[in-house]
Amino acid sequence: MTKKTFANLISLASAFGLAASPVAVAAQGAVAQEGVAQEDMSDLSDPLGLPSSTTVFGETDPNLRTATAVVNGHVITGTDIDQRVALLLAANETEIDEEELIRVRMQVLRNLIDETLQIQAATALEVSVTPQEVAQTYTRVASQNFGQNPEAMDTYLTSIGSSPASLKRQIEGELAWQRLLQRNIAPFVNVSEEEVNEVLKRLQEDRGTEEFRIGEIFLASTPENSAQVQNNARQIVEQLRQGGSFVAYARQFSQASTAAVGGDLGWVRLGQLPTELSNAAGQMQPGQLVGPIPITGGYSILLLIDKRQVLTADPRDAILSLKQVSISFEPGTTQAQVQQRAEQFATSVNAVRGCGDIDQAAASMGAEVVTNNEIRARALPDQLQSMVLGLQVGQATAPFGDVEGGVRVLMLCGRDDPQTQNGPDFGRMMAQLEDERVNKRAQRYLRDLRNDAYIEYN
């Protein structure tokens, strides 16, 4: 399973609900029978002459799950943490050192405590999630990643050191929390027509200005632990720059309400952000990672996912019809030979009179042609986007590639430019504002649950 696929698995699972399985703790004890002589016991039931009272040295049960924290009576064990950490590490496919692993385990423990509090709050208010509903969601996740084969996902989770029970617990936790918010918070959130109209008016006034799609990981801090939290944030940035999944890290570490959606803030304008984040985002390019940035209450790590102009058609949303023409090389081909063949290839392609002749011309060049009539420009790599969008119909890009993958060109055969955007309608904007307020209240609600909880750490 690839990193991208498994990161999607976490993302899909969290979209329905995710946390760590309840643990049954076995109590061990011995019942002493009085009034029976030791020699009688030996004769009747102990042919080996073993003493009736023993002291055991070392582990008596290799499968014993040692409690790491007890949350209002619910036990979170080291096994629960190990299995959740395994999910995170599998999603990132990056090696981490011992110090980083300790920090990851502590964060996962905090996440498991929050999930436990969410499930307990839902149970107390009679918001239930049945085992059948959890199983249905688990099967859905499996079908989207393993072709409708839950057994294959079971095997995979076990192979990475996690378990189906861990993923199902996370599903239960998020389903319970979502239902609790829908029943006890969402109905009491009100957005007036005047507020919606004011936002829509500002959108029209801001037409043509830039807006940014940003991912954020927020770590809360106090004056007492600020240095430690800042160091933790730096380590997260380092892991992300080494190839870690931003979505997976946001889900596990971010303390903002957007953690459930992988830290995605959606499309925002700079004026909507705190000054510190606005200043940073305005200097960023798509794909760039910045942080940690000190802000009120903690530190933020920003990823600029994309940017565009408000209510303005983006050329990258054009639907293109492309023909990819490619040549390959025999093993042992030198770089000089590749360069010469690529130049000949480019000359031959440039001599073709448009897309109608390219298939026949490719056959004479020993090249292959692949056609895609509905590809969005933004789906292309950044370097190719600008090249292709600068073409006229019938023109081809310069050759690109390498010895292993071959050399290819893209020929533009058609282009449907996007229509000018009118922006969200009244209903969509109201729903968006309501969601923002529900998320803020949910964050405060969870903070209150933490403050009222009785938590024992081991």
TrEMBL record:
Top-level taxon: Bacteria
Instruction: Respond yes or no to whether keyword Nucleotide-binding is given for this record.
Output: no
Instruction: Give an example GO molecular function.
Output: peptidyl-prolyl cis-trans isomerase activity
One Pfam family it belongs to: SurA_N_3
Which PROSITE patterns does the record associate with it?
PPIC_PPIASE_2
Residues in coiled coil: none
Domain PpiC: residue ranges: 209-306
Oxidoreductase in keyword set: no
Q: Which residues form the signal peptide?
A: 1-26
The record's keywords, sorted A to Z, are: Isomerase, Rotamase, Signal
Q: Which InterPro entries match?
A: OMP_Chaperone_SurA (IPR050280), PPIase_dom_sf (IPR046357), PPIase_PpiC (IPR000297), Trigger_fact/SurA_dom_sf (IPR027304)
Protein name as it appears in the record: Parvulin-like PPIase
This protein's species is Qipengyuania spongiae
